[in-house]
TrEMBL record:
CDD domains: CsoR-like_DUF156 (cd10148)
Recorded family membership: Belongs to the CsoR family.
Name of the protein in its database record: Transcriptional regulator
Main location per the UniProt record: cytoplasm
Organism of this sequence: Streptomyces gilvosporeus
Length: 132
């Protein structure tokens, strides 16, 4: 690895030392979603559906902008904010479930230390989601 590689990849030494670190893939890359394949994410099988869902949420957010520009009644805007927020929360929960089914299940094959690390990682993600 060159100095340039280390600079562009962040802490390359830490990633190299972490055997569970997954290789980076180009945006939009679909990979095989079998648990034994390295670098595969739990959402791979549902990637197209997730992108479609996020585009719908993006449309809701743009709708909020239009509503403000058109001086729509406050309560109507708040209703749209609620719908957008619920959409993101639902997406996050689905992604979390896929993480648990794929990444945590894959860690079970690797042993107790890997399981503990993945469960701790998932717990922290849940904590962040609950704070919002």
């Amino acid at each position: 690895m060159t100095t340039t590689d280390a600079d562009t990849n962040g802490t390359a030494a830490a990633a190299a030392a972490d055997h569970t670190a997954q290789p980076k893939t180009a945006p939009g890359t679909v990979t095989d979603s079998t648990p034994s394949a390295p670098g595969v994410h739990g959402y791979a099988k549902q990637k197209d559906a997730h992108i479609k869902r996020l585009r719908r949420i993006e449309g809701q957010i743009r709708g909020l902008q239009r509503m403000l520009e058109e001086d729509v009644y406050c309560i109507d805007i708040l209703t749209q904010v609620s719908a957008s927020t619920k959409g993101l929360q639902s997406f996050g929960l689905q992604l979390l479930e896929e993480h648990l089914r794929h990444c945590v299940a894959d860690a079970a094959v690797q042993g107790p230390e890997a399981i503990d690390a993945k469960v701790q990682e998932a717990t922290k993600a849940i904590e962040r989601m609950l704070r919002t």
